[in-house]
Input
Amino acid sequence: MMLSADDMTALWVTVQLAAVSTGLLLLLATPLAWWLAHTRWRGRALIEALVTLPLVLPPTVLGFYLLLLLGPQGAVGGFLERIGVGHLAFSFSGLVVGSMVYSLPFVVQPLHNAFAATGSRVLEAAATLRAASLDRFLTISLPLARRGYLTAAVLAFAHTLGEFGVIIMLGGNIPGETRVASIAIYNHVEAMDYAAAHALALILVVLSLSLLTLVYALNRRLRIVGVTG
Amino acid sequence: MSIDARFRLRQGEFLLDVDLSLPGEGVTVIFGASGAGKSTLLRCVAGLEQATAGALSVNGVVWQREAFFLPVHQRALGVVFQEPSLFPHLNGAGNLRYGLKRTPVHERRISWDDVVQLLGIGPVLQQYPHTMSGGERQRIALGRALLASPRLLLLDEPLAALDDARKAEILPFLEQLRDHFSVPMLYVTHSLREVARLADSLVLLEAGKVRAHGPLQAMLSRLDLPLALVEDAGVVIEAVVAEHDAQWHLSRLEFSGGSLWVTRSSEPLGAAVRCRVLARDVSLALERNENSSIVNLLQAEVVEVAAADFPAHLLVKLDAGGTIILSRITRQSQARIHIFPGKRFWVQIKSVALLR
Output
């Protein structure tokens, strides 16, 4: 099974997109998940609902609004245009933003659960042992949430690999820039080239399956027995 | 040297409102029914709860005053919770090192070897918390707190989650801790047995307020406190081992009011020991009765007579040469042998529990 150079490029764009958006998501979702796990604010439910929204909305709806927002006339796109960066529609950066919104719940949920499971008792114990708050986060919360991070990273990565609706609305079909594997597959099917579609599709299946197998296998290995000690 | 604490903290219906000056050394037990606010008081001292109005100084160091509130991690304290709360991703040694590493070298007063040896935790240093027994975890938690060289040790029912065998395993360590490291301790419990064994002074909390506080012996012999109304009410006597009797396997303990025979103690002659005499094990007689199985006889004067837990019972407070003893008798006996303040009796003690 041979891939054409274009398909290889599409695959490479896909992997880059998944890697970059997963990395950024882990960074940005950490404070959000931490806050959700520790706040007692009543408005928390709304924030949780907003975070989960991309899970239930049709990707086209998500992509549509992102296009409006990130395009040259949109609030974000227009602002970026004015400061000379350029709007984000039909660009790789735009896809990264789209993927981050699209995969947000897949990262926040596992991290939120992991932080909540750690509980406040061990953090209080750490505080009484002279650890300041950042120290406590780095030495207690983070290592105890490692399963959550692994799950979040793999889910976000795998989920972004399969992204289609948001990208078609937001990114179009620019080879080497915004044409990802799922778009390439769609193009092949449109062109009745089932063999090429099959090759790329199979790669996505194998890749996703291996990633998920890895996460389940590692999760067992990293299991921390008796979380409360 | 004292710990001065004043807190006012509302949590829903509950109001903690205390103003205490406690000894800055030894073990002060905070005693009371559940819901009395014992743990909340301890958490206020630790800085884990921020009282709306409060002031706290520990042996001259101010931890809280008006707008000033020293964060928990800057207080030189150690806390041991009912649940050991070990860090599950660190092994025994890693847990012990956590506070030690964060203690500036010039503040370190407690050595690794001392703690490991005293608590007997050498064998579990390489183990992770989930493979340790409940008692081992609690000892690691104690060691971890100690190695941060605390100026005050707070223990929140550290034995409550353990079964009796584990309790018996940890109690001697707590006693050694007190005697060896001279760190003042605030110890929350609702067990009179732990009070009798460990306490030097006692704070009695009721519904968020201090009902009474003072030295242990004085508190235990007060007839107006609920401590005297429980089934195992009694006094604690500090004594010295004066004699071992090999023939009868007994030891004689001497104290200001006389001496008591107890089952042979392993303590050497001259050792300071503590024993507990329950009010229900003490009876009164007008004459010295040699024809009885009772070994321990003392002479004492009635100080006070008060109602006890049941209508049939009375509590009698007696002074045996400066040592206070409580006796629980029936009202019928009082009427029969006329027990009233000022009268002298022979005190017959059926059983003495040697605590250490």
About this structure: The CA atoms of residues 26 and 178 of chain B lie 7 Å apart. The radius of gyration of chain B is 22 Å. The longest helix of chain B spans residues 164-181.
